[in-house]
TrEMBL record:
Belongs to the NAD(P)-dependent epimerase/dehydratase family. dTDP-glucose dehydratase subfamily. The lineage of its organism: Bacteria, Pseudomonadati, Pseudomonadota, Gammaproteobacteria, Cellvibrionales. GO terms for biological process: nucleotide-sugar metabolic process. InterPro entries: dTDP_Gluc_deHydtase, NAD(P)-bd_dom, NAD(P)-bd_dom_sf. It comes from the Bacteria. It comes from Pseudohalioglobus lutimaris. GO terms for molecular function: dTDP-glucose 4,6-dehydratase activity. Coiled coil: none annotated. The gene is rfbB. This is dTDP-glucose 4,6-dehydratase.
Amino acid sequence: MARSLLVTGAAGFIGANFVHYWRRQHPQDRIVAYDALTYAGNRENIATLEGEDGFHFVHADICDYDKVLATLQEFDVDMLVHFAAESHVDRSITGPDAFIETNVVGTHSLLKAAREYWLAGAAPLTHRFHHVSTDEVYGSLAADAPGFYEEQKYEPNSPYSASKAASDHLVRAYHHTYGLQVTTSNCSNNYGPFHFPEKLIPLCLTNILRGLPLPVYGDGSNIRDWLYVEDHCRGIEKVLLQGVVGETYNIGGNNEWNNLDIVHLLCDQLDARFAADPGLAERFPDAPCASGGSARDLIRFVEDRAGHDWRYAIDASKINQALGYSPAETFETGLARTLDWYFDNEDWWRPLLH
């Protein structure tokens, strides 16, 4: 039976990857891509899908309750996948208001509209509201601490993670209070195609190609678990199709790396690619590896971020054991696929740098 999905934040990094993934895996389903097209929402991310049967784009804000409700009604939506969020920690430190508005008020707007559409009639409609969240709601881990698990208490340390924690609690409350059929997933750091260039990996990649400094916070020892974005989409698919209503599932990559080692690996992979392909030096003459240097020469240590959490790690045993999920990519293979995509899509990332 075909489904009708409303995907919020569908023109953003993870949302766009999910839309492409779901379209490949479930071509019979209708997809309604809903996005406000703020700075990180790029319609080009989903341009190849527009005009296809069963794909629709709605340019609107999730805080617009009336528009959300009208969209649910117009397209007979039975599955809502909620990616839309302000997500950059640095931006949340300098301007937290937008994070409260989108992540808290926007999520509540969606929940209210979903409740009205799916539950207000004489008989509840079949539905699922899936909320995509982050491992940052759990706080920071010590070096020898086990990874975050689903029942762990929340200790958010930035305006971003606090706003996501609040949205998680709202989703839980709408399930327990009103009976909304919800699931939640908390993921580790994503990387891959369509990643907005302000984040660590695409920032360093595009800076190397332009011969610009690679800023590394503090001494670069902060540790993150990295998840290739397509693996994240596969995990969400598992939760949507097999997950238990009301449950939370942590989705991780089993890839803990400190920031400096990531930058070193990225530099070394780029050095190797330039050495193997002389044509890259012609395309990117400002890269140090174009003239026999090393990308590592661009590394610059900068003042640490305020309140910078030291380590995140995911314990993904629940989704592995309950739903049979495990990531397909190692960090090395995922990074290689990411580099391939950025080299093949220079016309996508160049305009975003300005």
